[in-house]
Amino acid sequence: MKFRDDIYLGITAVANLLAIYFALFIAPAEVELGELVRVFYFHLPGAIATYITLILSAATAIAYLIKKDYRLDAFSQSCALLGLIYGAITLIGGAIWANATWGVYWNWDPRETTTLILWLAYLGYFFLRMSVENVERRASVSAVYNILAVLTVPLSYVSFILWPSLHPRLSEGGGLGLTGTMVQALLMNMFSGLLFTGWLIWKAYKVQLSSDQLRLKLAEAVQNAD
Amino acid sequence: MPIEPYFVLALTWGSLLGTALWLRKRGADIERSLEEIES
Q: N or C: which end of chain B has fewer CB within 10 A?
């Protein structure tokens, strides 16, 4: 298992290093944005990873409510954790890019604002989990909350349709004049980033299961001592 | 080249690798605690 883990990580590392090299040094500059377009190769995969991990988290939360299997709750929580981390990366990376292209870090653009709402909704998810003591109740309540919180994902995605926005549109290649090599750089970063995300989710899931096991053992030990 | 692409790259990979190391440490700590309880 350890050997397979190392091989997977090795492939992931090589794929990511290649993707980064391609994004920084091989893909050409864009006509309007120039070299700044390279931010896009790291920012967009982060935003997509945020959406994917949170949708996966909510889907697993639905599965938990149906099957009541604690492993599904652990998996859902792990995906949400990664979604929260990717969300923070997307918000901060987006602000850096906004400052370089719009001249301000934050201007309450609909995409920025709705992504912040999404992030706060999932921060609330973890506060909710911390506030409920009973394990089964915590899993059920947070699964229901998760299903509601995931509505912020489509809200963030379609925000530019609902309100006027300066943010580039994903469906139009970010609204940029991306050529073949640029699209390759973007896809390479997206694919290799998702490989590592998969590993992180799996690792977080395993840690969560061990943590649940530890809590059970401690409860047993306390009961036996009484 | 402007500094922003390097900033965003460092932010992204710094956060992801930091998360990986934190998970590894937390996993090892939990395993150790489990072993202590069982022994």
A: C
